[in-house]
Structures are given as C-alpha cells and as structure tokens.
Write a structure and sequence with these properties.
Layout: H1 9-28, E1 34-40, E2 43-45, E3 49-51, E4 54-64, E5 67-70, E6 75-77, E7 80-83, H2 95-109, E8 117-120, E9 123-124, H3 129-134, E10 139-142, E11 145-148, E12 160-161, H4 162-174
Parallel strand pairs: 1-8
Antiparallel strand pairs: 1-4, 2-3, 4-5, 5-6, 6-9, 7-8, 10-11, 11-12
C-alpha cells in the first residue's frame, strides 16, 4: 500500500467519511431538502409540435453552500437555481432576465410545489484522487488536503478545509441562526 499523502487514497477516504457523517446527521433530523431537476430546453417534436422547456425532477438534495448532497451521499457542485413561482410578463430588459424568467416558467409548469426551490445543472463531483488534484470546481485536493473553493475566485491560499466547511454547513442547515 502506498502511504504517500499525495496518492489521494486517505484524502478521498476522509471526504467520503465527512459526506457519510453529513448524510447521517441530516437524515437524523429530517433536514429540509430542495428539488433537484434536469433542464430540458424547448424542442420540436415531429416537426409540428413545439414542446416548452421543462424542469424534470430527479431527486431531493440538501443545499450546503457550494455543494448539493443527496441521501445516497452523492456530492454535487451547486449549479443553477430557480423557484416555482409565476414567471411574470416579458420585460425585454436583458437576455439574462428573460432566461431566468424562462427557468421560472419551466419550474412553475412542472410538478413542483408553489414557491419551491429547484436546483438544476448541478454536476456530480468526481471523487477520483487524480480528478480532485486537477479539479477547477468547488472541491479539490492540494498538498494531501481536501479543500473548498467557497467562491469561484478563491485561491489555494483562501480555500478552506472540506471537513470543516461541510460540518459548518450541516450545522447551519440543522440549526439556522435567528432570522435566517
């Protein structure tokens, strides 16, 4: 067995252990989950029928900062988020505003509860040691440590320890501060 801390084995084991502990804690208190969906863009069917964009539910996740975690322990990077609310009227203010309105419309038409938060475009994080060493997403390994880029501009020196970050996020979800 290779005891080199850079081989990733012990680090990945530590990541999996922290994830398993998080799942156990969140399940034990029946912590609030959010919908996870797949976005399907508008499309033509048989050249005459236009299908509206849709958000198709694929499961439930806990939102833990820059991560989404499902009950099977699958850790994903947070992608896009919308809510199942009336989309409002076209405003033609900007392309990005219209895109967000389109996502709200897809969520509102979907099988989601009114007002529910829906996550989509969330990429599962590959826990392979080599993938983690070269990762550009929120979870990466450097110097034998699992680290979190808590914002896209975070560098190695401003990143935080994964186990600490995950434990703090779980605690905040279980027991949020007053007025949160």
């Amino acid at each position: 067995m290779n005891d080199d801390p850079d081989d990733g084995g012990p680090v990945v084991a530590g990541i999996r252990s922290a994830v398993d502990l998080a799942v156990d804690r969140l399940r034990a208190v029946d912590a609030q989950t959010e919908a996870l969906a797949t976005y399907v863009p508008s499309r033509q069917v048989m050249l005459v029928i236009r299908k509206e964009p849709a958000l198709l539910p694929v499961g439930r996740v806990w939102r833990l900062g820059v991560f989404l975690l499902d009950q099977d322990g699958i850790l994903s990077a947070t992608g896009a988020t919308t809510r199942a609310v009336p989309p409002g009227h076209r405003g033609f203010q900007s392309n990005s505003a219209e895109e967000r309105r389109g996502y709200r419309a897809a969520a509102f038409r979907g099988p989601f509860a009114p007002g529910e938060t829906i996550n989509f475009d969330a990429a599962a994080i590959d826990l392979d040691p080599e993938a983690l060493r070269t990762a550009t997403g929120p979870l990466f390994v450097n110097g034998g440590r699992a680290l979190v880029r808590w914002n896209p501009a975070a560098t190695e020196s401003t990143s935080v320890d994964f186990g600490t970050y995950l434990a703090e996020r779980v605690s905040l979800l279980i027991d949020p501060p007053e007025r949160a």
